[in-house]
Amino acid sequence: MSVSIDLVNALKRGLRAQGMTYRELAQRLKLSEAAVKRMFSRRAMSLLRLEQICEVLGVGLAELGAEAGRGREPMAQLERAQEQALVDDPALMLAMFLSINRWRQEDVMAHFEFTLPQWTGLLVKLDRLGIIELMPGNRARPLTARNFRWLVDGPMERHFRGTLLGDYFADPFDGEQDRLLLLSGSLSPDGVTQMKQRLEDVAREFDGLLARDASLPASERVGVSLVLAQKPWLLRLFGPYRRAQDR
């Protein structure tokens, strides 16, 4: 079966948006990487295979078709005004996270204290901001990549540093699903570069897991946040002991 160029391009955009390589897709489909590359280059895939790829990406065939018709890349970042609107309205920020994680309206109503008019109003605001496309039945089609990146030193990052960081670390990481590692040491510049790449690899793996589990009901998923960071740093309380030229 020959699939249209627009559909194949939409699949490719979906893979790029989630940071998924042909090799990773091949592993999920239990195929060789060469077979996947050949399938995309020749646009030769059955309807069943197309559905399997959609399942991996966490999208439906109808959504893929709509995306193919639009022919545009998902946003990898929001604009500053969009971020600021989310920071200014916590309910809107929550609605955005629920929407991009594909929560169904019935799950939202069951787990959060929104009335239907309130939830609809939030979706309308997200649609006007250009973060989602509001579809019939209050279904939201995200216009962002699934796990897009915030602007460096933008409204959301500053909000996280100033307000949310303390909340994130307020409770001990002692639960069954928790993990906190505090590591420090001295590395060569090459070692620092390698660690930075490993953090990027973990972020891509997280994106892939989000895509894999996106089609599961909300009751079978757990909200998880990762903070991945590294920088040259010394505790401020050590500052007085440092020589002037090293401060």
Automatic annotation (TrEMBL):
<protein>
    <submittedName>
        <fullName>Helix-turn-helix transcriptional regulator</fullName>
    </submittedName>
</protein>
<dbReference type="GO" id="GO:0003677">
    <property type="term" value="F:DNA binding"/>
</dbReference>
<dbReference type="Pfam" id="PF13443">
    <property type="entry name" value="HTH_26"/>
</dbReference>
<dbReference type="InterPro" id="IPR010982">
    <property type="entry name" value="Lambda_DNA-bd_dom_sf"/>
</dbReference>
<feature type="domain" description="HTH cro/C1-type">
    <location>
        <begin position="11"/>
        <end position="64"/>
    </location>
</feature>
<dbReference type="InterPro" id="IPR001387">
    <property type="entry name" value="Cro/C1-type_HTH"/>
</dbReference>
